[in-house]
């Protein structure tokens, strides 16, 4: 009887799945051609990672601004980790070191998150431009101002959205 109950028992639901549309939207936005073509982000693995983290951080800052979204913030970050883990494995990074690589990527995300949080809180364009120069692989450092403006615009869009729309990944562009 115990075996039958075990087989019929519902599988545990992965709460991250509710946020998967939001994660996919973060990736979609980070892949928009304008970042690379018009705003000078280097179209390389490093540049694409940089844009995923920049867009993700803008979303996380929006979530951080509203009380009660702590668990959703954690779940979205877990989706980032799972995706990066998969990408590393696909690129041929072995099991023995993938954890170390993911740890470095998380450290990078955390550092950038703090830098953008501070720059946006200071409402200082120079601080935001400097944070971008330090944290984004640019084809030309002179284009950091344009990228800062577009990230500020994205953040403003996100801040104007209702909680439900953000969590559902309904982010207009």
Any overview of this molecule?
There is one protein chain. The chain is mainly alpha-helical and 173 residues long. The protein is 73% helix and 0% strand. The protein has helices spanning 2-8, 20-30, 33-37, 45-64, 70-90, 95-122, 125-135, 144-160, 163-168. It is globular and about 65 Å long.
List the helices and strands and how they pair.
Elements: H1 2-8, H2 20-30, H3 33-37, H4 45-64, H5 70-90, H6 95-122, H7 125-135, H8 144-160, H9 163-168
Question: What is this entry, summarized?
Answer:
The chain is mainly alpha-helical and 173 residues long. 73% of the residues lie in helices and 0% in strands.
Any key phrases for this structure?
mainly alpha, 9 helices
Major sheet, described briefly? none
Q: Give, in order, the helices and strands.
A: HHHHHHHHH
- The tally of structural domains comes to 1
Rounded Rg: 18 Å
Helix content: over 70%
Oligomer: single chain
Alpha plus pi helix count: 9
DSSP E strands, number: 0
Structural class: mainly alpha
pLDDT < 50 stretches: none
Percent of residues in β-strands: under 5%
Rough outline: globular
Distance between the termini: 54 Å
Mean pLDDT value: 87
